[in-house]
Amino acid sequence: MTTTDIEVVATRRPLNRGMIRRLLSRPEIGALVAALAVMIFFSVYTTTFFTLPGAGVWLESASTFGIMAVAVAMLMIGGEFDLSAGVMTGFTALIVGVLTTHYGLNIWIAVVIALAVALAVGALNGYLVMRTGLPSFIVTLGTFFVLAGIDLAVTKLITGQVAIEGMTSVPLYDSIQPLFGSSIQIGGGTFYVSVLWWFLVTAVATWVLLRTRAGNWVFAVGGALNSSRQVGVPIMKTKVGLFMTTAGAGWLVGMISLFRTSTVQANTGVGQEFIYIICAVVGGCLLTGGFGSAVGAALGALIYGMVFQGITFAQWDTNWLRTFLGAMLLLAVLLNHWVRIRAGGSR
After folding, report:
1. Average pLDDT in the chain
2. Residues 262, 279, 246, CA angle at the centre, nearest 5°?
3. Tens of pLDDT along 19-64?
4. 334 by DSSP, 3-state: which?
5. How far from chain centre, in Å, is Cα 289?
6. What is the average pLDDT across 201-208?
7. Does 12 have pLDDT greater than 50?
8. What is the DSSP letter of 252?
9. Most confident residue range from 34-38, 161-165, 291-295
10. Are strands 264-265 and 163-164 parallel, antiparallel or unpaired?
């Protein structure tokens, strides 16, 4: 081997190690590997999973979780949690249902009102967290119970039941339904517009986090709050905006659920807030904030959707899903911790 060859090898090896370290430090790489493993496993184990009909089912299942997981991931990167994210989906859908079926309000106006209310609740959550200094876990837990109580008590008070049905008879329903609940048939599979919403939300969130000043603020307030304050980052505006983003995503998922099924239950979304957090953590978000990605959260939701439907296709007991979620969360936390240590060591 000549001197030149030795020099080439010597320079190539550090480069390769550096590329591997950079790859491992990406927050979504673990979720990508896990998603591929889950897809391969159920494709081999079942005959319907990796067909167009099968893909339509698990993509639809993953899409609504993915929309919320991306918004929750952005909030977690900013160092906060929102336990009212799940109940917000049912809350906004019930607003539209009550205003249109019992008060005769134009359905487009009702949808806009529901969005405005959701954003107001999100802004209130953010304002209370910032002004009081209380943990967002506690503040939004209170909001969760308030909204859950309103969903049950107020809906029953107005309608006499805890569900809204008959949305298809509302005037102009057909004009708005395709925006949130339409579907197309491809090769025998049904693919809903919610999948497109999921991709769009993920793309926009990724662009914001990686290409805008606001994205830099999100990482800054989640990773180094005091330093962010010292350099003039608008902390109040950033965190309130993140809570409003989560609430807005809840509104979007609520509209998708309402216009896909034309009905909504008072308990819609209750308990799903922890699934959103799990998807975000599996996607690489740290519970301490300052690290994560929208793509990773979307992949975490994809894993959940594939496992949920894969268990059904395999005809297993669906109660095993919670066991899988717990194991997936624990492994994701350990993997993220290891990656952060490796990334820190490489620097």
Report:
1. 87
2. 60
3. 656 665 677 787 888 888 889 989 998 888 999 999 999 999 999 9
4. helix
5. 16
6. 97
7. no
8. H
9. 291-295
10. antiparallel
Supply angle C-alpha 271, 59, 178, rounded to 5: 90
Give the whole-angstrom CA distance, residue 247 versus residue 254.
10
Least Cα distance to 263 among 179, 184, 157, 181 occurs for: 181
Can you tell me the distance from the alpha carbon of 28 to that of 83, in angstroms, rounded to the nearest whole number? 23
- pLDDT category of residue 161 using cuts at 50, 70 and 90: confident
Instruction: Give the C-alpha separation, 321 to 323, whole Å.
Output: 5
Count helices and strands (H / E) in the chain.
14, 4
Q: Reduce the DSSP state of residue 186 to 3 states and report it.
A: strand
Are 202 and 66 spatial neighbours (Cβ–Cβ below 8 Å)? Answer: yes
CA separation for the pair 44, 189 (Å, rounded): 19
Contact 90, 262 (CB under 8 A): no
Dig out the tokens for 245 from the structure.
């983003």
295: amino acid identity, one letter: V
List C-alpha distances in Å: 87 to 54, 90, 228, 253, 261.
29, 6, 32, 11, 18
* Rg of the chain in Å (alpha carbons): 22
Residue 276 has pLDDT above 50, yes or no: yes
C-beta of residue 73 within 8 angstroms of C-beta of residue 296: yes
> What is Dmax (Cα atoms) for the chain?
87
Q: Which two tokens stand for residue 170?
A: 């509302």
Return the residue matching tokens 């550090």: 14
3-class DSSP state of 227? helix
State whether residue 183 is helix, strand or coil: strand
